[in-house]
Amino acid sequence: MNSRIWMLVFDSTLQTLSMVFFSTLFSLLLGLPLGILLSATSSEDQGGIIPHPVLNNVLGRIVNVLRSFPFIILMILLFPLSRLLIGTSIGTTATIVPLSIAAAPFVARVIETALKEVDPGVVQAARAMGSTNMQIICKVLIPEALPSLVSGVTLTIINLIGYSAMAGAIGGGGLGDLAIRYGYQRFRGDIMLVAVVIILVLVEIIQVIGNKISGRLLSRR
Amino acid sequence: MQIVLKDLKRSYGALHAVNQISLFIPSNTVYGIIGKSGAGKSTLVRLISLLERPDAGEVYFDDIRVDNLTKTQLIQRRRRIGMIFQNFNLFSSRNAAQNIAYPLEITGTSKEEINKRVEQLLSLVGLEGRGKAPISTLSGGQKQRVAIARALATNPDILFCDEATSALDPQTTHSILALLKEIQRKMSLTVVMITHQMEVVRDACDQVAVLNDGVVVEEGLVADIFANPKHEVTKEFLSHLTGFDDSSADKMVQWSKTRGAYTLRFRGGTTDQPILSKISRQVGVDFNIRAGGIQKVGDLDIGTMLVDISGSDEQRQKAIEALNQMGVVVEEEAVV
Predict the structure, then answer these.
(1) What is the pTM for the complete model shown?
(2) ipTM of the prediction
């Protein structure tokens, strides 16, 4: 492997990192409110603070449909949206759109689950003290659920690393693209190996950092 | 702040959790509400702490009706109600001081004001210097002290205690009750204690209402209720307390079939007179004492005694009359 190839590997790694970073950011922006809404509108015995069965049901179904879509198909379906938002449907930047939308419902469920784990008694106490719904969400539910929220975000990032590799197959760039174009199509087993090893290392680093943060939050309690 | 309940009703489906309850809870007292699980206590407390609206009926704090407040009024009103719980319900993401600060934070109190108030409250509940402690490092009693401090942060006029001592051991229960009584006097609070423990009522409350199947079956001064319980449920609660209930009585009290079985309740001054031997001589009956004891209810001594009375029906009648004349309440047990 010459220096040109290593440059390629380096560029691909940066592309993957940027895809994962921005799609994590946008999927959180989309998924966080959705997850809060899902948990808040659930029935009272599930810890919902503003129970609304109809809204909860509709949101729940949308999330389920999006989640059960195979990512590769979702991505092709979202080409027009990428073109509309970014101006192109090919390349690293364009891939962030389908990645974010694919991960958002996952984030929503992860956040919903984490918030529902908060002791209903604590929420009742906050309500009895005269908290507004917004105060319950921001000052009680989110801080109380923070360790599980961090674990959830860690899981999301790891999922997105996997998805971003898949995105490479349809022109998304990044390590997945490198592995397919060089490793598979040009029979360069060494490049394939390097790409895979880098992905594994990324996943491992994210997992370790996530566990550290979550553990530190818990140990302060 | 006095609390008046008028014909409160709340049902869940076919279950009438609270079925037409009217109560007058006077200002500046410790008022107990006792009932078995399922008697409707929890629902009642959710109604009067404004966490839930009644299906019918009215709730008044002083002269102001509070069961029909708008959402914003409700939030404002709740901020002047303190509440503590069986499981403490403290925020695990906050340390002791931050827990106490919460009700002040949500009302937009300034940082300096909060810090000052938190220090005061920590020393009020006897936790000086423990403000930085994470909640998980505190004992049950300390947790409840933090919860009390948090409940009192906004200077409420009412404090609800929902089974506040049920998760604590007897000694801790005692110290928490003592603290609550002290705080009640200091802050002229109206304290409402919901419990299933008669000893809590005995040790802390001035007045009590007994709840059963969603209705109040008996209410009054704690001393009166202890000296002269009327309803079966109240008697049952008292029997748990004196250790005369089925679980402990099976060996201790075995009633003979030929003689009557009676529960005698003495009150105040009558506890230090030799009533039984006097009557025994006068009427010619024999008392066989099966069990007995004296407990303190506030400043008053209430004695309870289980006895057989042997003699003719007429003599026994006379003995009971004589006992009644001396101020002793006599209850005849159903002899099995």
Answers:
(1) 0.83
(2) 0.85
